[in-house]
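General statements about sequence and structure are easier to judge against a single worked case. For one protein, we set the task of working out the structure tokens from the amino acid sequence alone. The sequence in question and its structure tokens are set out directly beneath this paragraph.
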Amino acid sequence: MCYILYIPILIEINGIKIFMNYQFNEHNPPRIHGVRGNNRCSVDLDGNILEKGRMSSKDIKIVIDYILTNKNDLKDLWEKQRFKEYKEKRK
């Protein structure tokens, strides 16, 4: 999936790249994408699976746990689109 190179990766957990598209490339509801190899999923900020793809349930749970743990920050990130600041906060 070469398009992931142009999307800010928020964090990588156990080989799963977790990212959010820029708002002008995305549509509501705000969502987080998880990718491991060719497997991917999309989950909204309430933890609802929007697209499972071929990602394992175990990997989807990791994405959902990340979202629910960081929900307020992720909502703020969606509204303000300050990806660099978000990543620097997590260093």
